[in-house]
């Protein structure tokens, strides 16, 4: 014999039958009934601290300060530009080094030429005597 605390056991009532039409939030009965919901929710927009971003084609795209299309740069584009900037800085450093080396060579040759001219001038004066 089951012991019950209040004298009878728990027996829930029957639930009422469901309505025939769907109550799903994924299906709407409006003008857009035939459209895919991904078109309606295609772009995710985000605003954090005045910075706007949109999720497009699998990556976040910054809308820039003004929100105009001129400020839109993808993270892939930023990475490409950083790589290009790094490459150009390395090339610039190499060119600076080459210029410095050429200036040193020019200085050395100028000094050598000056010394040879002095020697030649000294020899000419000696020969005239």
From TrEMBL:
This protein's UniProt keywords: Coiled coil
Compositional bias segments (type: Low complexity): 1-25
TM regions (residue ranges): none
Coiled-coil zones: 71-105
Disordered: annotated segments: 1-34
Matching PANTHER family: LEUCINE-RICH PROTEIN (PTHR21533:SF19)
Name by which UniProt lists this protein: Chibby
The organism of origin for this protein: Petrolisthes manimaculis
């Amino acid at each position: 014999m089951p012991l019950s605390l209040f004298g009878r056991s728990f027996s829930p009532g029957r639930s009422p039958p469901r309505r025939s039409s769907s109550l799903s939030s994924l299906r709407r009965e409006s003008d857009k009934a035939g459209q895919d919901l991904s078109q309606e929710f295609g772009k995710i927009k985000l605003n954090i601290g005045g910075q706007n971003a949109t999720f497009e084609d699998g990556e976040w795209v910054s809308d820039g300060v003004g929100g105009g299309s001129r400020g839109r740069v993808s993270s892939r584009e930023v990475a490409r530009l950083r790589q290009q900037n790094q490459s150009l800085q390395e090339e610039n450093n190499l060119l600076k080094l080459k210029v410095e080396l050429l200036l040193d060579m020019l200085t050395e040759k100028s000094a050598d030429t000056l010394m040879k001219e002095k020697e030649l001038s000294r020899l000419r004066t000696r020969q005239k005597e």
